[in-house]
């Protein structure tokens, strides 16, 4: 009997790559994203290629009622794996865009994962099994000027997931946190982000996802991608608190007005 993986942000980028991996490995899928047409195309493709069953749920995680719709759709389905990729951000001076964007970032990046895990962890505890991979960001480890709300929201996610890892360590539920750096995806494009030239080549979503899956399958609790990102996270432990955002500001200010 096939296991089932629930994946958010599944219409493009890393979410799509996770969906493709689990489809190739013969998992039934429940795919969540806003764009129904794209999800339906993925469903048609995967069901024909891999002989699996794909459920598409075109949900907007910024809406308050999405969890009720999700529950009514999957209440009787066992969720073996949950991969959370959905997230939004913007690169712009804080006062130069509408507060509605901040509200959406908080809804999607913070409230949605709280609601999803409150619901799914209860399901997994009842079935005495579950594996969870949550995608956060290396931006969660420091304040990021011009991405203020985004980096703060990811700091919440990182601390929230690490605390849940501890809470669930003696259960048959494994939780992993993945913090990639800049990745060549639609998210990067939509957020108007131009990564620093010091990063070198930006990896594509497939490469980053495959790396994280290997670590996830080996029960790695905290996954960081790339030596550049690992070095930055390590070195900032020894730097003054206000020095870090000053350096970050210099590297990303262009195009952020």
Automatic annotation (TrEMBL):
Organism: Hypnocyclicus thermotrophus
Keywords: Oxidoreductase
Protein family membership: Belongs to the short-chain dehydrogenases/reductases (SDR) family.
Highest taxon of the lineage: Bacteria
InterPro entries (UniProt xref): NAD(P)-bd_dom_sf, SDR_fam
Protein name: Short-subunit dehydrogenase
Molecular-function annotations in GO: oxidoreductase activity
